[in-house]
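User: Batch of two.

Assistant: Item 1 of 2:
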Amino acid sequence: MAARRRERTDLYAELLEVVRRSPGRARVTRLSYAVGMPVDRLKALLAQLGTLGLLSSKESSAGATFELTVRGREFLDAYWRMRALLGLLEEDSGPGFELPR
C-alpha cells in the first residue's frame, strides 16, 4: 500500500508541532529530519509559515532557530481540534457510509 500524500495543512501542523516541542532548538537540519523533508523544500515552507505569522526566527552565530508565535499556537490548537472532530465522524460513519476524500 502506498503512503498517503500529506496535505499542506498536515505539513504545516507537523512542522509547527516539532517547533513547539523543540523550544530554542528548532534549527533547519533538526526540523528537516523530524518532518522527513529535504532542506530546500523545508526552507520554502518555513518562509511561508513566517509570512503567515505562524513562526518567528532568530538569527545567531550558530544559525537561525524557529519559534511558534501566538498565531501558530492558535493554528495548532484549531488543527488538532478539527482532526479530533473528523476522527469522530469517521468512527461514527457505520457500514455503507463513506466520507468523501
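Item 2 of 2:
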Amino acid sequence: MRSEQALRHPSRMGALRGQPLLLLAVLTMFNSANALSGVFIPVYLFKAQQSYVLIGWYSLLQYAAGGLTVWIAGAWVKKKGLVHSLRAGLALSGIFYLCVLLLGIKAAAWAAPLGLLSGIASGFFWLAYNVLYFEITEKDNRDAYNGMAGMMASAVGMAAPFLSGLIIGMSRGNSGYTIIFSLSLALFTAAAWTSAGIRKRAPQGSYKWSFPVQELRDCGSPWRVFSPAIVLQGVRDGVFLFVLGLAVYAATGEEQKVGTFYLVSSLAAMAAFWICGRWLKPSRRKTAMLAGTLLLAGAVAPLLGGMSYFNLMLLGIGTSLFAPLYMIPMTSSVFDLMGRNDEAVKNRVELTVLREAALTLGRLAGTGAFLFIAAGTAAGERSFAWLLLALGSAPIAGWWWIRNKLNTKTKN
C-alpha cells in the first residue's frame, strides 16, 4: 500500500505516470457532456412552464442531493475505492439524460426527481474526482494543473454550447434537444469507458462519519478559517452556475444566442486560465484572489443598467476573464490543507466531504435567495440585478476571512 508521504508527492512515483492526463480526459468528457446539454436543461424546463421558481427548486434539490450523496458515499469510497464512485457518477449522469430523453416535454413535471438524480450523479463524480485530483497533484504543481483543467473546461464550454445552440436553432420543435441530450449520453458512456484506465486505489480504512464536525470543533484547525470562505464561494456559484444561460434566453428567446454567449465568454476564460495557470504561484495567491473577487463583483455592475443581451455579454466576458484569479488560488489553497501533514492526508476523503458540505451550504443559501426574489419578481427587474450583485460580491468577504492564511508556506 502506498505511504502517505508518497501520496503527497505523486510525481515521484512511476506507478502514477500518465494518470493526471487520463483523469483530465475523463473530466473533459464529463464537462463536454454537461456543456452540450447541462446549460440548456434550465432553458428546456423554463420553456415548458415559464417559471423561474421551477428552475430554482430544480437547482436547490440538485445541490442538496449532491451534498448529501458526497457525505454518504464517503463510506463507500473508503471501502470500495474511488474509481467505483467515479464510474457511478458517470453512469447516473447518463441515466439522467436518458430520463430527460424519454420524458420529452413532460420533463418539467418531473423537475424535482430529475434534480435529485442529477445531484446524486454529481455527488458521486465530484467526490471521486476531487480525491483523485489531490492524490496526483502537489502544492508546487497544483496551480498549473488547475490552470490546465480550467483551460480545457473553457475550451469545451466554448464549443459545445455554441454547437448545441446551432443544432437547436436549426431543428424543428424539440428535436434539437433530443440530439444534444443523446450526444451527452454518448459522451458519458465514453468517459465511463476511459475511466477503466484509472488505477484502482486500495481501501483507505474506516470512514469517520462525524469527522467534518470534529475538524471544525478543533480550535487549531485551519478548516475553521477556510470553511466560511468556501461557503461564500458556494453562495455565488450556486446561482451563477445556472442563471446566466437562463437570463440570456429570457432576454432573447433564442437558444442560439445562449450558445453564442458561451462561445464568447468561454474563449475569454480559456485565455485567462492559460495565463493564470502559468503566472500564478503560491506567493501570488493573496493578491490574485483579492483582485479576482473585486473584479468579479464589478463584472455584475452592467446589469444594473438592464438585463439586455449586451449587458449580459459584458457580465459573461468579465466573469470569464476574472474568475481564474479567484478560483485557481482558492481551489489550490483548500487542497493544500489536505496535504499539510500525514494525518490530513489519511483523512483526505473526509476533508473532501467537509469542503463539499461547505460548498453545498453556500449554494443552498444563494439559491434560496434566488427563489425568494423569483417568487415575486420578474428576472428583468432591477431587484434581480441587485441580487446577482450581492451574490457576486460574497467572495470578497471570503477573501477577507482567509487573507492571513494565504501565501504561507505549508509542508506538503
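Residues 19-196+216-405 form a domain with the Growth Hormone; Chain: A; fold (CATH 1.20.1250.20).
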